[in-house]
What we know:
- By secondary structure, the chain is an alpha/beta fold.
- The protein has helices at 3-18, 54-62, 87-93, 113-120, 131-137, 139-147, 177-188, 197-203, 234-237, 254-263, 279-288, 300-308; strands at residues 31-36, 39-45, 70-73, 98-101, 124-126, 151-158, 163-165, 192-196, 219-223, 244-248, 266-269, 272-273, 276-277, 293-296, 314-319, 329-330, 346-354, 357-364.
- The protein starts with a helix and ends with a strand.
Amino acid sequence: MSAADDRRYMALALALGRRGQGQTWPNPAVGCVIVRDGRIVGRGRTAPGGRPHAEPQALAQAGAAAAGATAYVSLEPCSHYGQTPPCVDALTGAGIARVVIAHGDPDPRVAGEGVEKLRAAGVEVTEDVCAEAAASDHAGFFLRVMENRPWVTLKLATSLDGRIAMATGESQWITGPEARRAVHGMRARHDAVMVGAGTARADDPSLTVRGLGIDRQPVRVVLSRKLDLPLDGQLARTAGEVPVWIVHAPDAAAKAVAAWEDLGARCFSAPASGRQIDPAAALRALAGAGLTRVFCEGGGSLAASLLGAGLVDELVVFSAGTVIGAEGLPAIAAMGLDRLAEAPRFDLWESRRVGADQLQIWRRA
């Protein structure tokens, strides 16, 4: 295979894995393509829930054609026994002659051992093909393993002057239907959708993915220091159907915790920082429960706390062609910055029109 062929087949493996984002946590969303004599004989991606892994699914599709073939895998194959046997053993057992890997796995149970075992078994290994794309795709998994927190995408839907609602609280709808549909697609590619308690109380959101026909909904996360959330709202009514996780302070009323748990919610205690839950502690709790990618939809206080703590990895901004004025509600609450040098900085990754609105995607500099 030429280097161009390797990149082409790896691009397909990455695309396959990407289709599983938001569905496979706590495992990474991996893609695998098996090629023999210039023909694709097997494809697979991590199944919803994280198992089976991509490699055994691709091998099952390839069957006997896997012998002597090349496997393209978007992440280093696992080499340890978990709930399933190692993917390295599946590859060698099927007679794969060459494995092309996009990126190494930082999980201490793997971390280069997968490559070593493949080579020890006589398999040719090529590493770091489309590594930058793989690092982007697996960033949430890498952060959970290495920093004990998930990847955080902060979404804002604002007027041209950065407002998310009128002074009266009216906010439906600043952006158009195309932008709102795009947001549902983004929700679906994350493990969880997160809001602050103020947004949960004011908007009574469902936080589900609608109109896309998906079976596995993201977890719905609310950060509420006092756990003073309505027990008759949409989240409470559906907590037994779609997961609701609430992060509260240690001094939240035990009665409120019990009431939410009785409804089917999962409650986590995390220390408070001033009037809010400490955002770093909240993310550690979510990572400990397996989340790798979190889509935060506000409100302004939660956005400010995440930005101030340097915990926003990606900023997604939908801007509508309307102006609300200074009396409107700002997208981001006060951050207490005195100098421009203290302001968080992001690099522009993408800018495009979505219906009548403008979408910009920024990543942490």
